[in-house]
C-alpha cells in the first residue's frame, strides 16, 4: 500500500526492512545511533540528520557506532563484506571520501577483477551529497563523476523517495560495492512510497516527464529543478522530456539516445563541477551515437568550476537553477 | 630423545616444508626475474619465513589474513596453491587470480587469504572487518593483518588498532619489522622506540619476538591467537626479522652496511636456525630435512615449468569480472 513518505524516511524504511529480512545486513558509521558510551539516551541521534533514528532499537546488533575513523570503519565494512556480511557504511558527507578513498577505490572496487572473479564485496557506502544546505565547501560537493570514473563501483543518486527506497534495497542486495549518494536538500521531499519492500534495478533511467521538443538529462536535485524548468517552458510552448538517470554507473544511455532521436535536442544538467562530469560524459556519448539526430548543439548546465561557496547569495548562483536550465533549453530551440 | 618443541614431528616437518617452499619460491623468482622472465616487479619474502609460518601454523581456512606487497610468503604459509601462485606471477590464465592480479594481489578467499596488497597499511581495516564478521557470524575465526615497520606509520593502521580495541575484535596486528621501509631505516622513520609502547597506547597488549626464531614466533602467536579466539581482544605482535633481498628485485641495496647481507645469510637465516635446533635436539634428522628440500625443489621446478607453458589470458578476459558501463 502506498502512502506519502519523505526521502529521509524512505531510507530508514529500506534499511529497516532489509535488516529484518537478512541479519547479515549491518550498518556502521559515525553517530548513526548516537550517544554511544555517554550517560544520556541511547539512539540519541540516529545519524546527524536523524535518518537512521529508531533502527538501533529494532536491530541493536546490526547498528554500530564508530569512532571518527573513516578509513578504519569503511575499510572494515569492505573487509566484512568479503567475509559473509552485507555492510552499509555511512560516510555522513561524501566530502569525507578523501580520508578513506583508498579503501573504496583501491580495495573494494578492485577485488572482484583483481582476484580473477573470486571475490564479492557486497558493501554499500551511503553518504549525503550536494549543495544548497549552506554547508560550505567541504560538506556540499557533488562528487558523482569521481566515483563513476572508477571501474568496479556502482553509483546511485536518486531524486525522490520512491526511487530511493527501491534503489537502496537493490544496493544492499547487490554483490558489488555501491556508492549511494543522498542529496541532503531532497531529504524532506515526499512522494507515494509503497510499504512493502521492492527493488529497482540499476541502469534503468526514469522518464520523469515526457516531451517532444528537448531532452533534459539530470539526476539528484537536478531532476526537480529540471521539472520546474519544464513547467515554465510549457507556458512558452516548449515541450521538454526530463530523464532521471537514477544510477550513474551503470548508466542507461539507451533511454537517453532514444529520447534524443525523437527530440533532436539535448540539455545535460549536472550539479557536479563541469570538467569530466556526468554532463560531459552524456554529451560525448550522444554526440557520438546520435549525432545525426541533433538539430542544435548540446547544452550543458553545471556548477561552475569552483568550490561550493558559503554565502547564500553565492551558493544559489552555484547550483544550476530552473532559470538557468530553462535558458539552456531556449538556446537549443534557437530562441 | 624427548621432544622439547611445541609441535610433534609431523608439525615440525610441516613448518619446515612451508618455510623451505617460501625460500625456494623466492630464490627462484630472484633468478628468473633477473633473467627478465617475469613481468612487472616483485618483492621477496626470503629471510622472513619463520614469522609468516610461525603464525600461520595456528590458523585454519576460516581465519583471515591480509597481506602486504611482500605477500608470497604469507600466501604459501596460508595454504594458497604454489603452482597457481607461480602462474599468477607469470601473468597466466591459470594463475590464482586468472592473471589479473599479479605478484602484489594474490588472493584466495577460500583459504582465508584476503589478498596481498599494493597499498601499505591497507589490510588493517580489512581484517577489522573480517574479525567483525567472525564476531557477528558467531565463529571463532581471527583476522590477522601483516604490515612492515614502514606501513606501521600509516594512519589506516593506527585507526584500525583503535577500532579493534574499542570493539574488542579478534584481530592481530603483526608488525614485520625488517628494519627497512623500502630503503629507509626504522630508526629514522618510527618515532617510538618500541612497538609495545604503541600497542599500550591503544590499550592492547604488545609482544616483540625474534622473527628469525620460528619457535619464538610460534609460541607468541599461539598465545595472541588463543587470546583473540577467546574474546579477549586484539594484540600487536612485532616480529624482528631479516629481509634477504632488496625492497624490490633490482634494488641495488646501497643503503645497507658493507657485508650486511652476507652476515644475515650466514648468521641470521631462520631456516638454518630451525634446522640446527631440531637436529641438535635429535627430533628431526638432516636426512629428513634434506628429503623435504628435494621435494620442494622439484615442486618449484614443476611450478615454473607449468607457469611458463600455461596460456596467457585471452582478450575477452579484459572485460570480465567487473561491471563494464559501456
Automatic annotation (TrEMBL), chain A:
**Keywords assigned:** Oxidoreductase
Q: What is this protein called?
A: Alpha-ketoacid dehydrogenase subunit beta
Record-linked NCBIfam families: PRK09212.1 (NF006667)
Q: Where is the Transketolase-like pyrimidine-binding domain?
A: 5-189
Q: What InterPro entries does the annotation carry?
A: THDP-binding, Transketo_C/PFOR_II, Transketolase-like_Pyr-bd, Transketolase_C
Automatic annotation (TrEMBL), chain B:
Recorded coiled-coil stretches: none
Keyword terms of this UniProt record: Oxidoreductase, Thiamine pyrophosphate
Catalytic reactions on record: N(6)-[(R)-lipoyl]-L-lysyl-[protein] + pyruvate + H(+) = N(6)-[(R)-S(8)-acetyldihydrolipoyl]-L-lysyl-[protein] + CO2
Asked if the record carries the keyword Oxidoreductase, the reply is yes
Which coenzymes or cofactors are required? Answer: thiamine diphosphate
Organism's domain of life?
Bacteria
Dehydrogenase E1 component domain location, by residue? 17-315
Entries under Pfam families matching the protein: E1_dh (PF00676)
Any idea what job this protein has? The pyruvate dehydrogenase complex catalyzes the overall conversion of pyruvate to acetyl-CoA and CO(2). It contains multiple copies of three enzymatic components: pyruvate dehydrogenase (E1), dihydrolipoamide acetyltransferase (E2) and lipoamide dehydrogenase (E3).
Q: What is the protein name given in its UniProt record?
A: Thiamine pyrophosphate-dependent dehydrogenase E1 component subunit alpha
Amino acid at each position: 500500500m502506498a502512502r506519502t513518505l519523505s526521502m529521509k524516511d524512505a531510507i530508514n524504511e529500506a534499511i529497516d526492512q532489509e535488516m529484518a529480512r537478512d541479519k547479515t545486513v549491518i550498518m556502521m558509521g559515525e553517530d548513526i545511533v548516537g550517544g554511544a558510551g555517554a550517560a544520556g539516551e541511547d539512539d540519541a541521534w540516529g545519524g546527524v540528520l536523524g535518518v537512521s533514528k529508531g533502527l538501533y532499537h529494532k536491530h541493536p546488533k546490526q547498528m554500530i557506532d564508530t569512532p571518527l575513523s573513516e578509513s578504519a570503519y569503511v575499510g572494515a565494512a569492505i573487509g566484512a563484506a568479503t567475509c559473509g556480511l552485507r555492510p552499509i557504511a555511512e560516510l555522513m558527507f561524501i566530502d569525507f571520501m578523501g580520508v578513506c578513498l583508498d579503501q573504496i577505490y583501491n580495495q573494494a572496487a578492485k577485488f572482484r577483477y583483481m582476484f580473477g572473479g573470486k571475490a564479492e564485496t557486497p558493501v554499500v557506502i551511503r553518504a549525503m551529497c550536494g549543495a544548497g544546505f549552506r554547508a560550505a565547501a567541504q560538506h556540499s560537493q557533488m562528487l558523482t563523476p569521481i566515483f563513476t570514473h572508477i571501474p568496479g563501483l556502482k553509483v546511485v543518486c536518486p531524486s525522490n523517495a520512491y526511487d530511493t527506497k527501491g534503489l537502496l534495497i537493490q544496493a544492499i542486495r547487490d554483490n558489488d560495492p555501491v556508492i549511494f549518494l543522498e542529496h541532503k536538500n531532497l531529504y524532506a521531499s515526499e512522494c507515494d512510497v509503497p510499504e512493502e519492500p521492492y527493488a529497482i534495478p540499476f541502469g534503468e533511467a526514469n522518464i520523469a516527464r515526457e516531451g517532444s521538443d528537448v531532452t533534459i538529462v539530470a539526476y539528484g536535485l537536478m531532476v526537480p529543478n529540471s521539472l520546474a524548468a519544464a513547467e515554465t517552458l510549457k507556458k512558452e510552448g516548449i515541450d521538454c522530456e526530463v530523464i532521471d538517470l537514477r544510477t550513474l554507473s551503470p548508466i542507461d544511455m539507451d533511454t537517453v539516445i532514444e529520447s534524443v532521436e525523437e527530440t533532436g535536442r539535448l540539455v545535460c544538467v549536472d550539479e557536479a563541477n563541469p570538467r569530466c562530469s556526468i554532463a560531459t560524459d552524456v554529451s560525448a556519448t550522444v554526440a557520438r551515437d546520435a549525432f545525426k539526430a541533433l538539430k542544435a548543439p548540446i547544452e550543458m548546465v553545471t556548477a561552475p568550476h569552483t568550490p561550493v561557496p558559503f554565502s547564500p547569495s553565492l551558493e544559489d548562483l552555484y547550483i544550476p537553477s530552473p532559470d538557468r536550465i530553462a535558458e539552456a533549453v531556449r538556446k537549443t530551440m534557437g530562441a | 630423545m624427548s621432544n622439547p618443541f611445541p609441535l610433534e614431528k609431523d608439525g615440525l616437518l610441516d613448518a619446515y616444508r612451508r618455510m623451505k617452499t617460501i625460500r625456494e619460491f623466492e630464490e627462484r623468482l630472484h633468478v628468473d626475474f633477473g633473467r627478465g622472465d617475469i613481468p612487472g616487479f616483485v618483492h621477496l619474502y626470503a629471510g622472513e619465513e619463520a614469522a609468516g609460518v610461525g603464525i600461520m601454523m595456528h590458523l585454519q581456512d576460516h581465519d583471515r589474513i591480509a597481506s602486504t606487497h611482500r605477500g608470497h610468503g604469507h600466501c604459501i604459509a596460508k595454504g594458497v596453491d604454489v603452482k597457481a601462485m607461480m602462474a599468477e606471477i607469470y601473468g597466466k590464465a591459470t594463475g590464482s587470480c586468472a592473471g589479473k592480479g599479479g605478484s602484489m594481489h594474490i588472493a584466495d578467499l577460500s583459504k582465508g587469504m584476503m589478498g596481498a596488497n599494493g597499498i601499505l597499511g591497507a589490510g588493517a581495516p580489512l581484517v577489522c572487518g573480517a574479525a567483525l564478521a567472525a564476531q557477528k557470524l558467531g565463529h571463532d575465526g581471527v583476522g590477522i593483518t601483516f604490515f612492515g615497520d614502514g606501513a606501521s606509520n600509516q594512519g589506516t593502521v593506527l585507526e584500525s588498532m583503535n577500532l579493534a580495541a574499542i570493539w574488542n575484535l579478534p584481530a592481530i596486528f603483526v608488525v614485520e619489522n625488517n628494519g627497512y621501509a623500502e630503503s629507509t631505516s626504522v630508526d629514522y622513520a618510527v618515532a617510538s622506540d618500541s612497538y609495545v609502547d604503541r600497542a599500550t597506547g591503544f590499550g592492547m597488549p604488545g609482544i616483540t619476538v625474534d622473527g628469525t626464531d620460528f619457535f619464538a614466533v610460534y609460541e607468541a602467536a599461539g598465545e595472541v591467537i588463543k587470546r583473540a579466539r577467546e574474546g579477549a581482544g586484539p594484540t600487536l605482535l612485532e616480529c624482528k626479522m631479516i629481509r634477504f633481498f632488496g625492497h624490490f628485485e633490482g634494488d641495488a641495496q646501497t643503503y645497507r652496511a658493507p657485508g650486511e647481507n652476507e652476515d644475515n645469510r650466514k648468521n641470521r637465516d631462520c631456516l638454518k636456525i630451525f634446522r640446527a635446533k631440531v637436529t641438535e635436539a635429535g627430533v628431526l634428522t638432516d636426512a629428513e630435512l634434506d628429503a623435504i628440500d628435494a621435494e620442494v625443489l622439484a615442486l618449484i621446478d614443476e611450478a615454473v615449468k607449468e607457469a611458463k607453458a600455461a596460456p596467457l589470458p585471452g582478450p575477452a578476459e579484459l572485460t570480465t569480472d567487473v561491471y563494464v558501463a559501456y
